[in-house]
Amino acid sequence: MTGRFSTWLHGMVGLLFFTLPLAAAPADLVLTNARIHTMTAEKSQVEALAIQGGRVVATGTAQELKSLQGPSTRVIDLKGKAVYPGFHEGHGHLKGLGYQLVRLDLSGVTDLKVVQDKVKKEIAKTPKSEWVLGRGWDQNLWSRKEFPSRQDLDKLGADFPVALTRIDGHALWVNTLALKKAGITRKTPDPAGGKIIRDAQGEATGILVDRAMDLVRAIIPPESPAQSEKAIRAALARCVELGLTSFHDAGVGAADIAIYEKLLAEGALPLRVNVMLSGSDEALLDRYMKSGPVVKGDHQLQIRSVKLMADGALGSRGAAMLEPYADQPGYSGLEILTEEQVYQATKRFAKAGFQTAVHAIGDRSNRSVLNAFERVIKEFPKTDLRLRVEHAQILDAQDIPRFGKLGIIASVQPTHLTSDAPWVPTRIGMGRMEEGAYVWQKLRQSKAVLVSGSDTPVESANPLWGLYAAVTRQTQERHPPKGWSFDQHLSMAEALESYTKNAAFAAFWDKDMGTLEPGKYADIVVLDSDLNELVQDKRPHDILKAKVLMTITNGRIVHENKKEWAGLRG
Predict the structure, then answer these.
(1) What is the tens place of the pLDDT at every residue in 273-301?
(2) Domains annotated on the chain, with CATH
(3) Quick one: DSSP state of residue 271?
(4) What pTM did the predictor assign?
């Protein structure tokens, strides 16, 4: 079932559930004796919740819901535990998370020597002539905060081509053999939207930024469908363990969509996937611009958005800035797409019924995207576009109010702040850091819809880590004591909204999910701790200790943490 008719039909089903009186048939599942945070204005906290046919049919007291219990109803006494709407991953890369789980993972390593040791072990178990691949290195964590070189990899074994992706996915570190195989020499020009880092003699150092990465990636043998499926299955299992019931997958190709469709047909898709088509795949775009948006299953798989890349990342100095980088005078980053290109693409997608989501990190790129969006909005005044800026990381003061004025969704990643803040002042200067970096409250005050995610595998997909970062603006080691620009922190209620109802709105799912109320899908997470209470009691650090006890998607239990609390086996 595809197109606008599918979207309308699913909406009507939800409306029917919401407006009809409770069915005479008993509920399939009742959660009771719990602290259920519905995220609604009325009945914001209830004791019990009943599920039938994958949707919530009633909320209230345990006594009120007893009439819905029959011989076949499973009743789970949650013994006072906390219940929330299922968390959304507002912006992530599902297959990337999977490969992080099954490949060489260098994230969090704080020493170049340790990175080299890990790579050397990977080389030792890699078959001859195959590529050594990995991801996660971050030179900002090392004592020498400079990009590594090809020589740092050559000494580990020159007989293997090595390609290691930076944590942000916007730089590639390769050895000399990989450069040679790709034909990269001192005469190779920088591609548009990319940069080959060179030494004083003009030789490639082994660091390729943004589109320069494609020079090497083009010759790396593609992963097989079986390898991709293995990675995606691993990522899905990890997500439901973390309490995620929906995943906004940013930049997906045809091969991965085929895997999602296969898993859906097998009943093996344990969470909802909101696919953002890769904006660089013209064949894929042409196909979907003709067919229109797609909704499959009970909103288990949705394809109605396209993701574009306007600039690079801050860590690799690829973010497009209005003024030069403080630590690299004269250089202002990479503009991958111009304002005109974003405008033309967004206009094309809007005509076909697709939402546009644009990666923009630097203030120059954010302004360019906002300008393009404003032009499209004027041309489609009656269309519900829900245009998204992904990251909205560094903003010029005059552009912040435009988010609310234009109705632009700001899709942010709270843990980016706590990972980046120690080095961002050096990169862009303290003035720009304080004025427009990670300004979540300023965006909210502009009336922008704020959505949170992790950008996994750039950061951990754990939404509890994101909630902690949002309310404290501190590292997990509680640095700095008062948080970076703490006036921009989110209350727990605001942070939860960004992971639930706001994220549902951003995916056009707000009529069917995001809150726990009759008529909406039963997408639920059960925690051993009440997050609201932890913040009220001034124990926000305990958010990091909270455990996911159960994850429910579409009324089906997809994860049950029996080790943490055996009492859930009711």
Answers:
(1) 999 999 999 999 999 999 999 999 999 99
(2) 3-86+519-568 (2.30.40.10), 94-217 (3.10.310.70), 304-506 (3.20.20.140)
(3) S
(4) 0.87
